[in-house]
Amino acid sequence: xxxxxxxxxxxxxxxxxxxxxxxDVDVIDDVxxxxxxxxxEQSSDSALLLVEAxxxxxxxxxxxxDGGEPRVYLSDARVVHDHPLASVLSEAGALGAPQxxxxxxxxxxxxxxxxxxLITDLGVSGDELRSLSAGGGVLPADVLAxxxxxxxxxxxxxxxxx
Length: 162
Prior knowledge:
By secondary structure, this protein is an alpha+beta fold.
C-alpha cells in the first residue's frame, strides 16, 4: 500500500512543506499534533495535510492552533473500512462512511465525505472538490496538484513528488 502525505503551512505569502510518514498514527490527535508541530516550527498557526493513497483516494486535512477539531475531506468514504489511515482521518467528524457491504467493489463511484468547503478560501470550492473527487479518470495525485497550485504551493508539492 503506497501512501504519500505532506504537510504545508503558510507564513505570510510563503508556503513551506514537508513530506511526512503517517504509518504510526493511531488517532486523529496524532495527525493534528504532527501538523501543528510543523506549523509552529514555521511560525504559523495553521497547517494543511494532503494525503494520496494507492492512486485510489485522497484526503485533505486542515488544522489550526485554536483548539478546534481538524477539518477533513475524504474523496471516497468507502475506504475507511479498508485503509487504517482513512479510518483515523474519519475520526475528525461524521464522514458518513458507507457500511462495509457498500465497499469500493460493490459501488462503482466514489463517495466523497467530510468538509468539502475546508479549502474554499484557498481557491477550490466545495462543489469543485466534490466534482474532482467523483470525476472519472482524475487521479488523486492530479486533484492534489490542483489544490496545491490554487493555494500557491504547487511547486513545492511538485518537487516532493519527483
